[in-house]
Write a structure and sequence with these properties.
7 helices, two-stranded antiparallel sheet, mainly alpha, 2 domains, Cd81 Antigen, Extracellular Domain, Chain: A, 2 strands
Length: 269
């Protein structure tokens, strides 16, 4: 009498999981493609591809960060899209590995960030110093630091406005060579005046001169390092919630534990 035995076939993905993974990763794929295109466009505008000497501060280049972020997002999203649509278990396994690596890196960064707070603070200070030194050299870095000082943290310099003495244009000694910005600060250090529609780009001129009568409400006196720490303390729950949400989203999309368990008969005489 023939004996029927059953085994599990794990070569297919459930229909529901297939389209959930596909839908999510279409969004990620398009986001990655858009970010990558913006980064490449920014490099093209700066003529970086034809002048590789501009890559001396590549780690601080916002366009480079966009290119790397877009490329990683594009690769993961594309792998998930094709793997889910074609039901290719090899691509889905690669997709799961990518997500596991990202999750591990996020957890590691969170733990190291808590343990090595002083080291991270030192690195942030060094990075901001490089931004100040090269403020006029790269329009992307200039726009980034202006956004940080004016729109985000409402601060000026690292410890205060005096840190802008590190920049050759804002250094007080540059007045001898005809720099109009000598002993000043960028316009992003200035506070927005009431009923001011268009901000005065020269509002930071001469504000660090000894004979200049500085109005306390004219520029931001707080350094960006202190302002960043205070912002993080105020928004700690929000940042932690976003991190947990991203981690949960990554775990929920892992397809390696959700294969369709269809039973296929195997007859053995």
């Amino acid at each position: 009498m023939p004996v029927k035995r059953y085994r599990r076939d794990q070569s297919e993905v459930s229909c529901c999981l297939k389209y959930v993974i596909f839908g999510f990763n279409v969004i990620f794929w398009l986001m990655g493609l858009s970010i990558l295109a913006i980064g490449v466009w920014a490099w093209t505008e700066k003529d970086t591809f034809n002048n590789l000497s501009r890559l001396t501060n590549i780690a601080l280049d916002p366009a480079f960060v966009l290119i790397v972020t877009g490329l990683i997002t594009f690769t993961i999203g594309f792998t998930g899209c094709v793997g889910a649509l074609r039901e290719n278990t090899c691509l889905l396994a690669c997709y799961a590995i990518f997500l596991a690596i990202l999750l591990l890196l996020e957890m590691t960064a969170g733990i190291l960030g808590f343990i090595f707070k002083d080291w991270i603070k030192s690195q942030a200070t060094n990075g901001f110093q490089a931004f100040i030194v090269h403020y006029r050299d790269d329009p992307d870095q200039q726009n980034l630091i202006d956004w940080i000082q004016e729109k985000w943290l409402e601060c000026c310099g690292i410890e205060g406005p005096k840190d802008w003495d590190r920049n050759v244009y804002f250094n007080c000694s540059s007045e001898a060579v005809g720099s109009r910005e000598a002993c000043g600060v960028p316009f992003s250090c200035c506070k927005q005046k009431a009923n001011e529609i268009i901000k005065n780009k020269q509002c930071g001129y001469d504000v660090r001169k000894q004979d200049y009568r500085l109005d306390a409400s004219h520029i931001y006196e707080k350094g960006c390092l202190q302002a960043g720490e205070e912002w993080l303390e105020r928004n700690l729950l929000f940042v932690a919630g976003v991190a947990v949400g991203v981690a949960f989203l990554q775990v929920s999309q892992r397809p390696d534990a959700n294969f369709d368990n269809q039973k296929m008969p195997l007859r053995v005489s």
